[in-house]
Amino acid sequence: MTFIFQLFGVSVTHASNLLNSHIQFRFATCNEVLMMVVGSICAVLHGSAQPLMLLVFGLLTDTFIEYDIELNELSDERKECVNNTIQWTKNYTDTFAGLNQSHWSSINYSEWETFAPLRSRPCGILDIEYEMTKFAFYYVGIGAAVFILGYFQISLWVNAAAKQIQLIRKIYFSKVMRMEIGWFDCTSVGELNTRMSDDINKINDAIADQVAIFMQRFTTFVCGFCIGFVKGWKLTLVIVAASPLIGIGAGLMALFVAKLTGMELQAYAKAGAIADEVLSSIRTVAAFGGEKKEVQRYDKNLVSAQRWGIRKGLIMGFFTGYMWLIIFLCYGLAFWYGSSLVVDTEEYSPGTLLQVFFGVLIAAMNLGQASPCLEAFAAGRGAATIIFETIEREPEIDCLSEAGYKLDKVKGDIEFHNVTFHYPSRPEVKILDRLSVIVKSGETTAFVGASGAGKSTAVQLIQRFYDPKEGMVTLDGHDIRGLNIQWLRSLMGIVEQEPVLFATTIAENIRYGRPGVSMDDIITATKEANAYNFIMDLPQKFDTLVGEGGGQMSGGQKQRIAIARALVRNPRILLLDMATSALDNESEAVVQEALDKVRMGRTTISIAHRLSTIKNADVIVGFEHGQAIERGKHSELLDRKGVYFTLVTLQSQGDKALNEKARQMAENEDTPEKLSLSRAGSYRASMRASIRQRSRSQLSNLIPESSVSIAGELGPRAYAVSQVDKSKNAIQEEEEGDLVEPAPVARILKYNVPEWPYMLFGSLGAAVNGGVNPVYSLLFSQILATFSVTDPVAQRKEIDSICLFFVMVGVVSFFTQMLQGYAFSKSGELLTRRLRRLGFHAMLGQEIGWFDDHKNSPGALTTRLATDASQVQGATGSQIGMIVNSLTNIGVAILMSFYFSWKLTLLILCFLPFIALSGGFQAKMLTGFAKQDKQAMEAAGQISGEALNNIRTIAGLGKERNFVDRYIAQLDAPYQAALKKANVYGACYGFAQCVVFLTNSASYRFGGYLVRQEGLHFSLVFRVISAIVTSGTALGRASSYTPDYAKAKISAARFFQLLDRVPKISVYSDKGQKWDNFQGNIEFIDCKFTYPTRPDIQVLNGLNVAVRPGQTLAFVGSSGCGKSTSVQLLERFYDPDKGRVKYDTNVGAQGSQLSRGQKQRIAIARAIIRDPKILLLDEATSALDTESEKTVQEALDKAREGRTCIVIAHRLSTIQNSDIIAVMSRGYVIEKGTHDHLMALKGAYYKLVTTGAPIS
């Protein structure tokens, strides 16, 4: 047995290891174990059915041959049937008996023959119809048993697996949600999501139907060889001796294909990376007009992927041909040697020859078919190891633990005692170094210091996200490691720099702060957080959905909802981690006001970079290199001239002069009422404007999961009817876009036209390959016919010629398989490359507004390039080869069958649809269910995805159990779907397996009738049956390509949709004027604009502003007022809905995607090297710290000399030297002039300056 295994490239230890999958079944209860045991017994019995059929088949063949020999013998008129034995006719022997010796010389050979006594052959006993009826019943009986066993083996295993998988999902997710935050630092969320979906599915594959199918096939393999060795060990050994050649071929093919596929994927990954890079920074590419260059760069990388693909096709063709050659040589050898055992030595009967030959053949085939199951087991074991490792791991800080005590009274004193700490993901970097800090109860303590000084880390230690490596953190003198975690975290309210909102309503988001909180408490909290007014202005008020990650809210709104959520907890300790850093001036003022209100009487720790938020703190602690090196009030620390002094000086240098001047003016003119009034009015204005998502670059990165935009619900209702219609149309278009009409094949083939010679030769090869199966059944039946030939010389000659013919068919097959493999891979790869290039070219040709749609995010587009283009191959390339192959196979088989016996052919054709159906079903079985499983898991996947992405927020709110419960509730649907699938799948599998038995039963019974009543030669019965049954499986294979074919048509349709789309602003167009003496005059005339993805929100509302050559125009205003939008209209990323932008040429802008000091300076160099007449600087220094900003600002001031320049900045120090400052609000310019002029006006600009700090 070991020997056989090794022949087929499967080591015994490997097989036993994979079968010994105890690790995968550890969650099975007694009930499931019973199901699996019964399922296994059914599988083993089912596996013995095919070899059992061979025994019947051997007897049936012998019966036919005996009957044919009897007919042949009795067709000789010198013989007759006497007393059920064949004898010479009486009158012949009497005649010769009367002759004397002198007449003997005149007797010829045939007359001499009659003197020899005949071999005693029975006759007249065999009723062929009766015998065939008996065999038919055997077949029906086996078929019925197979149906029942097939049903139970599959449904029981799938059922048992479904229950276990549901349990594994529950336990795994619960365990992941209990892990400490440090574990998440070392494990990426993407990896966890993959484990939740793919890895658990792999375990499912390994413990469900695959086990049953493996047992069935393995049993067939064992029984097949047993029959071979028991019935005829000599022939079995001869066949087995040739088998390693097939094993070696299959092994080498797998090796080469894996290697070449790896190379191809690697080559395509490079091209994909280029596509992703280009699409992610499409604004930069567009600004520099680099589209064509990028398409060429992408195409260059596609060439190597194409080359590897073609090589892979050739290698596959070569090895497939090689294997067919060996198989046919084996057939020739087996029949030649077997026939000599039947005819010459008479060791075997013809039936035994077939039993041995097919026994070994079926055994080998089933071993081959069992190997994919081994792959599934290996993948399942690998996945299970990782999953179970996590399940077994004990969290270092168990957030759901009931352990630890709860203090009766909490004062709120926090102290760090000599705390040393490094993150688990970066053990070599010391973050806190013997930190000692006291935070007194009821006081506000501000932590300040450079980035990476350890401020946020200290806050996370208070929340017990991590434990210190040395030292301890105490609350009211108690080490927090001894306190109950959930209770400890419930004392704290935290507001972060980037607050996380969950994809539900505003009210529900606030409820996450404290379960069971009343609506009155929610309203009180929102009023305290200055959020109540803007919420009530929304159409759905508290029931407004905030979108995935809060994407439908502006930064200020998200921040205020997060503050309300923190307040509703009524926390003793308030942690503010850069709570206002992401906001513009106006929003910041509002949020800061809210924070000042709520800090009273609470222990508050505030981390901030802005002085305005720090000055009022009771105590300021200066951090440096993980230590607290100074502590005191604002004025004390300034006198000390340490860390705090440095930070203050750097930050306020630019703004100081402005602030002083503004303050003097404010003191001179005592008008507080006017100021506060204008602030309130402007607040409402900014509130309405900020309902829109904050900036276009964020908009293209957000990609909400749900496909229906909630934009329409958020905007104020006061827009014109045309706007509402516009948004309705947008939503309708979006829904229609998902349902694509499959593309016509003719159009797909049109793109493949240049490769027609390859496709022609490939189809010829495929057609010849398709004819191989029917030719095989012709030769096989011919061999059987020779066994009933009574003349030994003629018999031997015929057998030799048939065996030679087998060899010839093998040789032809070798070359045609190679031709088919190479020709189709060449045409397919060339098509894929062509489509990818065209697709990428079309993508880069779209206007920027198209990229704002979340369906066209860089990730989605890169995926579309990768998958759609290669899926289109499913309608051309090798797919055509497969279809031509199958059609030729069926065509030749049916023509041949009709020629030999049209009656029998008609009978079998009635079964053909079922055979084809079963073949197609088995191929499609898994893909169909995989899709359903995926859909069923989608809801649960959304919950787990949201939980893992926002694990810190959830931990801070102590909401782990809530998410676990929601996830578990969503697991019931996939479980019910799996149970339903178990029954359907089981029944279909049973039917697919038994249909061949039923076909054989009817065919041989009717064949017996035709042989008896109509004199049909028995070999033709075998010829017709084997030709049609093999062609039926070919039809099944062809039908299994239909999903690929349908997928290809839909992918192609999506592709053509992209190619056919006419962009609103064509990048590749040569139309339009070009000037030589370009000056740099720019004028916006009454521009109105809405973003295509948010048509209900007016961004520009009649913008009028002009800038002359060499001047610098600065746009100022709060987030969402339309500053960046106006620059993008100038670059012609968008066209205004109304009004005009007069300007002269496409201009280079600084890429809006770039950030941080060095990148920023490189970007400036890139902009200047074009020697532009116009320089656009969009928030060029906003992302930098104070020191980097100074360096970059100097570079910019140099670059501006002598050029028309438009600046958007959020820090006033960068704007004050501009020739014109335009203050924008709600899409139009409300004030413009120089800095001094606007300060004198005492309007919006004056107010922005006097509040100090950055604008956004």
TrEMBL record:
Question: Biological process GO annotation list?
Answer: canalicular bile acid transport; oligopeptide export from mitochondrion
> Chief subcellular site?
membrane
- Swiss-Prot/TrEMBL catalytic activity: cholate(in) + ATP + H2O = cholate(out) + ADP + phosphate + H(+); taurocholate(in) + ATP + H2O = taurocholate(out) + ADP + phosphate + H(+); glycoursodeoxycholate(in) + ATP + H2O = glycoursodeoxycholate(out) + ADP + phosphate + H(+); taurochenodeoxycholate(in) + ATP + H2O = taurochenodeoxycholate(out) + ADP + phosphate + H(+)
Per the record, a Pfam family?
ABC_membrane
The UniProt entry's GO CC annotations, sorted and at most eight, read: apical plasma membrane; mitochondrial inner membrane; recycling endosome membrane
Please state every residue range assigned to the domain named ABC transporter: 414-650, 1082-1251
Q: What is this protein called?
A: Bile salt export pump
List the lineage, top down. Eukaryota, Metazoa, Chordata, Craniata, Vertebrata
